[in-house]
Design goal:
- With 173 residues, this protein is α/β, with parallel strands linked by helices.
- It has a single domain, classed as Leucine Aminopeptidase, subunit E, domain 1, CATH 3.40.220.
- 38% of the residues lie in helices and 17% in strands.
- Strands 1-6-5-2-4-3 form a 6-stranded mixed β-sheet, with helices on both faces.
- It starts with a strand and ends with a helix.
- The model has no long low-confidence stretch (mean pLDDT 97).
């Protein structure tokens, strides 16, 4: 199985790429986004600023992904993706969340990378219930890994409670 659940601060992981749960402006924020920018240093913000805007203030629409270097991080690259804000589940949230995982993995593979770590996208400030997010994420990743068997995926949970939700989704009792 090339999907593994780890409990860690994602900024410490020495993988080829870590995924950032960003917002469309890609200019930093709170949560994992803030932690990644602090650990990477100012070069990351500069690299994000240099990415083209697809509409005013939007460098990455919801469900898409962009790649930059990792700067002072142990990870060589950061893949920035924008998860959906949870509105109750009837505004396409599952499809948009699945797209984040799929596009991030495909972008990593297109750059010849082999190891990638994801945070629990949308499960913080954006309010997506982890019990609903985990099966959606895992289904998208499993499908994508069929085309990219070379990739190793780490699902990086910030605490034990989140890890147990993801473990249950990975190996239902
Ligand atoms: N390592 C691993 N996971 C972390 C870390 C860390 N260092 N820090 C937080 N998490 P969130 P979202 C977990 O809110 O819901 C930002 O302001 C956290 O416990 O970071 O997609 C962006 O700029 C949670 O389980 O991302 C956007 O505006 C998960 O990461 C908005 O928040 C995601 O929580 C995105 O919200």
């Amino acid at each position: 199985m090339n999907i593994e659940i780890v409990i860690a601060d994602i900024t410490r992981l020495g993988v080829d790429a870590i995924v950032n749960a960003a917002n469309p402006a890609l200019l930093g924020g709170g949560g994992v986004d803030g932690a990644i920018h602090r650990a990477a240093g100012p070069g990351l913000l500069e690299a994000c600023r240099a990415l083209p805007q697809v509409s005013p203030g939007v460098r990455c629409p919801v469900g898409e992904a962009r790649i930059t270097g990792g700067f002072a991080l142990p990870a060589r690259y950061v893949i920035h993706t924008v998860g959906p804000i949870w509105h109750g589940g009837d505004r396409d949230e599952p499809a948009l969340l699945a797209s984040c995982y799929r596009e991030s993995l495909q972008l990593a593979a297109a750059h010849g990378l082999h190891t990638i770590a994801f945070p629990a996208i949308s499960c913080g400030v954006y309010g997506y219930p982890p019990e609903r997010a985990a099966p959606v994420a895992l289904a998208a990743l499993r499908e994508c890994l069929l085309q990219h068997a070379e990739m190793q995926v780490q699902l990086c949970c910030f605490d034990a409670r989140m890890a147990s939700v993801w473990r249950e989704a990975l190996n239902p009792a």
